[in-house]
Amino acid sequence: MSAIVFLSCHLSGTGHLVRTLALARAARKRGHDVTVISGGRPLEHVDVSGLDIVQLPPLTVRDLDFSTLRKADGREADADYMEGRKTVLKNAVRALRPDALVTELFPLGRRALAAEFLLAIETAHASGSGQPVRVVCSVRDAPEPKPHRIAETASVLARSYDAVLVHGDADFLPLSETWPLKGPGLPPVRHTGYVVGPMPLALAHNPGVLVSAGGGTLGQRLLEVAADASRLSSRPWHLLVGGPDAGARAQALLASHGHDNLTVEPVRRDYRALMASADCSISLCGYNTAVELAQCQTPAVLVPSEEGGEHEQLIRARRLATYPGISLLRDAMLDPAILAETADQAAAAPRRAPIPLQCDDGDAAIARIEELLTPQHAPQ
Q: Which of 214, 281, 318, 332 lies in the 20 to 30 Å Cα band around 52?
């Protein structure tokens, strides 16, 4: 049994933490001693039961401004606050003495927290159990393209990492399409499949048109347009609101747009079952939503977030929209009439076939980490 520590910091949505928790559960299932160090805000709707969590003083961002890190209350995180995080992080890694340290997204992202990730790596090596500590980058299928950062990132990987595990399907969307890493000494890059559990059975209750902007604060405009669009549809519409103030935002949407066929509430833990039951799903195109849609037969309308000039969701949505039963609406095209018509057409169409992506619950990724921890498979 090895000690595996996952270090993750979700700053806007929930996907980074959800994926990290799934990997942690897969590692625990395979018999490892597992701890997740989380640097984002705690999320009530995300199940962390059965896992050991070390919570750093939390950070978040506003409007995808990753250059300004904020405390959970919205105030800017000052130098003392950031030093306090580093102290908690260093003490945790030192006490845990990992055999493998898995950094979520960094160094392909989270540059604002580079000092924390590099501190964790340094501390892990200094606190190891005697065997070389393996350092692994864990990254989603399409990290936000940063062409001007590729050479610098490749240098960090070559200097400090033993492997890059891409949680995606190379036949569907290879990492090289968004991050063509090159240079001497790069660690091996392995696509391990999309990390997702089995899709739950559909509910007896059909929510009609299900609209979700994920568990974070993105997609407010989509929710407002959807609330207006519901007035133009004869079907029930069910909106799910994310973010730390989800309850208040849900009440405000309902108060300003409420009518008989509209339900608005905070995100729910049974979101995937609702998606499987719906006539149509309208959503952004974050990692978890995309993989969940691929597994089910629900017709879908994707409205990828392009806030802050980001392209990750658009890249993923364009690929998914090449399959039958999935439509793509760009943000510039979004208005109530177009959304209502697109949703009604999708809901009236036959159920679609699932998309054949390489998926598992994280088991393949943990198997790769185990190879690194086996002397005959260790990097040279």
A: 214
Phi–psi pair at 100, nearest 5 degrees: -140, 135
* Confidence grade of residue 63 (pLDDT, cut at 50, 70, 90): confident
Tokens of 373: 């921890």
Listed residue (271, 152, 119) closest to 210, CA to CA: 271
Structure tokens at 41: 């805000």
By C-alpha distance, which of 125, 143, 135 is closest to 188? 135
Whole-angstrom Cα distance, residue 276 to residue 24?
25
Taking only Cα atoms into account, the Rg of the chain, rounded to an integer number of angstroms, comes to 21
Q: Note whether 352 and 323 are within 8 A (CB).
A: yes
Q: How far apart are CA 204 and CA 197, in angstroms?
A: 21
Write out pLDDT tens, residues 244-267: 788 899 999 999 987 889 999 998
| Non-local CB neighbours of 69 within 8 Å, separated by 6+ positions | 11, 59, 60, 61, 76, 77, 82, 112, 113
Going by the DSSP 8-state scheme, the letter that residue 64 receives in this structure is T
Q: What are phi and psi of 150, to 5 degrees?
A: -65, -50
155-171 pLDDT, tens per residue? Answer: 999 999 999 999 999 99
Nearest in space to 262 (alpha carbons), one of 327, 350, 348, 336: 336
- What CA–CA distance (Å, rounded) separates 316 from 287? 8
- Give per-residue pLDDT as tens, 167-177: 999 999 999 99
How far, in Å, CA of 61 to CA of 41, rounded?
10
pLDDT in tens, 322-377: 999 999 999 888 999 999 999 999 999 999 999 999 999 999 999 999 999 987 55
Determine the pLDDT at residue 244: 76
pTM for the whole thing?
0.90
Strand 134-140 with 100-104, pairing: parallel
Query: What string of DSSP letters covers 342-368?
Result: HHHHHHHSPPPPPP---EESSHHHHHH
φ and ψ of 211, to 5 deg: -120, 125
β-strand partners of 8: 38
Assign residue 116 a region: left if phi > 0, alpha if psi is -120 to 50, beta otherwise?
Answer: alpha
d(CA 194, CA 241): 25
